[in-house]
From TrEMBL:
Region (Disordered): 1-88
Compartmental location: Cell outer membrane
Keywords for the protein's UniProt record, in alphabetical order: Cell outer membrane, Membrane
Primary location group: membrane
Residue ranges of every copy of the OmpA-like domain listed in the record: 586-704
Feature: compositional bias, Acidic residues: 59-85
Keyword presence, Membrane: yes
Residue runs in coiled coils: none
This protein's name: OmpA-like domain-containing protein
One GO cellular component term noted in the UniProt record for this chain: cell outer membrane
Family matches, as InterPro entries: Bact_OuterMem_StrucFunc, CarboxyPept-like_regulatory, OMP_bac, OmpA-like, OMPA-like_CS, OmpA-like_sf
Amino acid sequence: MAMMVSSPAAAQGLPSADDVWDQAPPSAPEQRAPQAEVAAEPEAVVAEEVVAEEAVGAPEEEPQEGAEVAEAEASADGDDTEAESVEAPVVRERISPVMNLEGAPGFHGIASAISPGALQFQVGFLGEASGGTNVIRLNDENRSLTGNVAVNGQFLEYFGFNFRMQARNNVNTYGRPQAMLSQGDMTAGLIGRYEVSPGVWLGGDLNFFLPSGFGGVGLSGSALSLRPRLLASFDIEEMAAQSSDAWVPVVAHLNVGYRFDQSENLVPEGVQLDRIERFAYGISAYDLVEFGVGAEVPLPYVTPFVGWKLGVPVNGRGGVCDEDRALRCVSDIGGGAFPQTFSLGAKAEPLENLGLHLGVDLGLTSSDAEGLGVTLPYNVIFGMSWNIDASGPKVIIEEREVETIVEVEPTLGYLVGQVVDAESGEPVGGAQIFYEGRELAGQISDGEGGAWRSYGFEPGEALELRVEHPHYEAALASYTVSEGEGTLEVQLTPLPREAWVRGQVTDAEGNALADALVRVSGQDGPVEVRTDEDGRFEAQVSAGDYTVAASAEGFLTAGQDVSLEPDGELQMVLSLSEAGEQLVEIDEERIRINERIYFETGAATILDRSFNVLNQVAAVLLENPQVERLQIEGHTDDVGNADFNMELSQARAEEVRNYLVERGIRSERLSAKGFGSELPLVPNTSNRNRSLNRRVEFKILGEEE
């Protein structure tokens, strides 16, 4: 039974290669190769055939690749016309679309208005990396690393969506702190597009930008920004095909939009950002009129691209150009301060549906301006995406009854086993199961549930099993096979797991310190090693929590509380500063300091003059890992509102705790508590007494506290 079906391309509503490149006269009969797709079911045979009506009863001819034969009919006066052969250009397949940094089809900051088709989806990751000196301010060293997880979809032919979640880490030597992390920033958008003529697409999109909170986690609704944008794309190859045989593989894009930027609302009232914070958290005091142009060259295996993007700052927030600001205003600088980048890179599809992306944005902005983030000199962008075609081919199925002979296998028994950790009860994946006395290949337990299913055995057979894993002692187990499936649990006793600590000890200027003592204290007891002539050291201990402390004569102890993973390796550099006058002592109850810790008046900001004494407190904690719990207590005098004093003392205690954590002390060892003016050392009867009552104390807590 013959049935007429369409080719896979036609089934998806797409033009086939013959439709695009058919240059034969209208009167020429088509010759196409038969196409078939067969799917087998247990009780049905699926078959498809393509049959041309003119070919019924005629002998089958082989199709001519890359050309169609046109044969003209005899003329009215009886003269015969010779057949002509017209060659069509070779069809070059383009790679699948690749996402831009907002998750929409395109590249870098350029969006495409061309629809990828209905029920087309993409998921992917795009990373950004940059580094250098003199980036944000003179003599700085800046490194920036960003990760973008994105997804886009096209439910309908002309309507789609995009979503992007971003995490960004910026490290600058002048930052306070040096590393600033912005994670959880979200972008969501809708896009509509329409092909107004062959190869000419117009559309628009609306994107919402919701950043995470400044100096914390969680989204900030008050900083919600949005950007409507007009899109246009021109497939010059398709446009040229309408009037000539020329092959012009170029696709051009134009984007014009306006960003209503509310990111300035992230900044708490009264806080003035420095240029490093403004860049790290992506905060702008201006709206932007955005322009973007780009071009792609869709070759068979790779698509090079170039692009240019410009932002024109408008509608600056109040106070952005105050006279006491560090940078000049945009209006004073002019176009040299406008955010501007040039993009260069390529997209590729080494495997079907797997898209790769590599490119760089080169900054063209010549001057920094107050209220605008710095444009990086360069930003390398890389990533990959996966294309999902949910439309599926259309298949015509013909069912026929067939006679099937089924051989009945003898009844066998199977063992469904599981390997678990004897101590934790957790599944153990990757364990090898051997059948003693049988010439059978070993099996491996799966990584998630630690399970395996045995070969089939006759009921009543006795099995002797040996189970091995490199991190556990080998175990033996016995099992008698029964009909159907039986179960067996094999418990493995874990072997001790080792870990390595390696690193270098230097002075504050980076010079190696030889013969320095490095003590690794934890569950294995203190392990002490000395540095070599290059200041390097290494120690092997069991996995677990440790305090690593380095000390040398004339220097202040430095180190870090660490957690070592089984079979893991930790690399670290410990920089020791000169000891100076001893300001800290420890007894059974407290760590006592011989100098006050100074803060800004009415605030929790620690003054530089107190860094030395806090560094010595950190050194004492590193030298005494037996101090497992330390409470940092903040106190004020009785001047001012009691509630404010309580909040201030708590904030100051927490700021000291944060400083010690930055110096390498594990946060679980430290707690912070403010007492306000409730526990004075002396009566608040004079300025001297009040000065003594404004203090920070360090109390060693026992297990019961």
